[in-house]
Amino acid sequence: MNTPTISHDGYPPATTFKASEEDKDLAQADVRSLARTPSPTPSEAEELKPRSKLRKYCLLVSLFDLDKLKKPKELLRIAIIAALMALLILFVIYQQAIVNWLRPFADWMRRTPGGWVIPIVLLIVLSFPPLFGHEIVAILVGDAWGIGIGFAIVAAGTILGEMATYWVFRSFCMARGEKMEGKKLKYALLAEVIRQGGFKTAVVVRYSAIPGHLATAIFATCGMGVFTFLIAAVLSLPKQLATVYLGDAQGGAVISSKMHTVKTVVVLITILLTTFAMRFLRYQTDKVKETVIYHRRKIRQAKLRDAAGVDPEADLGSDSSGSRTEDALWRYEGVIHSPAPQKAPTAHYAHARSKVSGSRMDV
Questions:
Q1: Does residue 318 sit within a domain?
Q2: What pLDDT, on the 0 to 100 scale, is given for residue 166?
Q3: Is residue 349 part of a domain?
Q4: How open is the CA angle 210-279-272, to the nearest 5 degrees?
Q5: How far apart are CA 159 and CA 230, in angstroms?
Q6: Quick check: is 111 in a domain?
Q7: Nearest to 79 by CA among 91, 95, 90, 68
Q8: Contact between residue 267 and residue 261 where contact means Cβ atoms under 8 Å apart
Q9: Which contacts (CB < 8 Å, 24+ apart) does range 12-17 have?
Q10: What family, per the record (predicted)?
């Protein structure tokens, strides 16, 4: 009996396998994307743009940028700054009235045995952000004990309070500071400036209008050494001396013209020092921003590799000269880097080819 012949059309399969070619293309795209440093985020791109001369040298123009006013977060930031400036102006205007209202309390502290401990404790408590009020306490101390003993009391309370703040933030807020560096670009830039600037930057910041206890919290979370911080805090005590002198000078019932002159000089010096400090910090920020932003991009690349199951430290054939070209584009042109597709090394396709050959064997 004859056995019927069964026809198998299209068998054996053709030598070309379209699915394997698609897998190879996907493997090429994945390798290129993992080997390439991610582009800067919009906030990083904005920071890398060259500033105009007006924005570079005028703090108010940089603060009230019309482009940034369209963002709700920027409006909230400007509202907070305006509120703080209004409070500062009101404090300067009604400073004498505040002192007169608190003078009975200052007289009670001076008459009480061991009453000098009270302002020291108050200064220590007020050293923890977001509390404030060092200036009011210093003026009261100057009014009650005079410039000599008053300055010693304020200096002791300031140093002890700053050391307590430094220890608390150094011990319990380091992880929080690292998270903020990863999320907030401005904080990451300031932290890097403080790390590289060291003692000089610490002194400049403490002589500005930036509240000392806020600067202390940043110093601690950025890893500044305790001795560097302590020396900078001691050298900034003349700021407290000026405040104590204001309290001592306005202790009388009648405010003399000398008192007005001293207050005006103190305010002008504070404004000049603050302007210099902000210009100095901005200059230092411009020096480190490219390095900080590139480091943040490499961290994002490592996370992408880790999510794809690739060793973050593995060399995927990226060219180091490409990074320099990419940085140059951002530095001088402020445009998004769009490199041409490059052929990945053959060695990195071994795994993809083995998968392709395996799929053929299965078929």
A1: no
A2: 92
A3: no
A4: 65
A5: 8
A6: no
A7: 68
A8: no
A9: 13/363, 17/356, 17/359, 17/360, 17/363
A10: Belongs to the TVP38/TMEM64 family.
Locate tokens 């990074």: which residue? 323
Q: What is the identity of the amino acid at 154?
A: V
Average pLDDT over residues 196-214: 81
Q: Mean pLDDT highest for which of 13-17, 22-26, 27-31, 39-43?
A: 39-43
> What residue numbers bound the domain in which 203 lies?
117-296
Q: Note whether residue 128 is domain-resident.
A: yes
Question: How many domains does the chain contain in total?
Answer: 1
DSSP string, 269-300: HHHHHHHHHHHHHHHHHHHHHHHHHHHHHHHH
Residue 178: how many CA atoms within 13 Å on its side-chain side?
6
Asked if omega into 130 is within 30° of 0 (cis), the reply is yes
Note the pTM of the prediction, 2 decimals. Answer: 0.64
Angle between helices 134-172 and 174-183 (to 10 degrees): 90
Predicted pLDDT at 6: 52
Tell me the longest C-alpha to C-alpha distance in the chain: 134
Matching residue, tokens 């940085």:
327
